[in-house]
């Protein structure tokens, strides 16, 4: 069994697509109309056949509540791995990404957290 798609709730699919592509550098994989929304996935440019990130509308009340609550508690919605966290942190700062946690050692790893501007906190980690 493999993880092929992981979803993240977003307030606005088009805004999320722009952020994840322009700021983070992900590549659009799927873009299929589904009613008034889209099946909209992204992949890492380093692994075009890898796990897809689904930008899922937060339209359902449970999704909105979940997203709002974990954001308010400072809990990241998901985590992305990076090879060099300090380098990635600097690159994202230059692109205007706002961090809520600067690079911080946490045992054997280094982490940082940023706001994706679409209702989520995202953690990046260097193992």
TrEMBL record:
PANTHER family per UniProt: GLYOXALASE/BLEOMYCIN RESISTANCE PROTEIN/DIOXYGENASE (PTHR36437), GLYOXALASE_BLEOMYCIN RESISTANCE PROTEIN_DIOXYGENASE (PTHR36437:SF2)
Pfam families: Glyoxalase (PF00903)
Protein name: VOC family protein
Gene3D superfamilies the record matches: 2,3-Dihydroxybiphenyl 1,2-Dioxygenase, domain 1 (3.10.180.10)
InterPro entries referenced in this protein's UniProt entry, alphabetically: Glyas_Bleomycin-R_OHBP_Dase, Glyas_Fos-R_dOase_dom, VOC_core
Signal peptide range in chain numbering: none
Every VOC domain range: 1-127
């Amino acid at each position: 069994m493999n993880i092929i798609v992981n979803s993240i709730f977003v307030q606005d699919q088009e805004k999320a697509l722009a952020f994840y592509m322009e700021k983070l550098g992900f590549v659009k994989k799927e873009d299929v109309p589904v009613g008034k929304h889209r099946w909209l996935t992204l992949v890492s440019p380093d692994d075009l056949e890898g796990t897809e990130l689904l930008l899922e509308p937060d339209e359902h009340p449970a999704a909105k509540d979940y997203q709002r609550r974990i954001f308010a508690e400072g809990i990241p919605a998901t985590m992305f791995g990076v090879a060099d966290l300090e380098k990635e942190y600097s690159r994202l700062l230059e692109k205007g990404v706002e961090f809520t946690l600067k690079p911080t050692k946490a045992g054997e790893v280094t982490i940082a957290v940023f706001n994706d501007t679409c209702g989520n906190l995202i953690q990046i980690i260097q193992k």
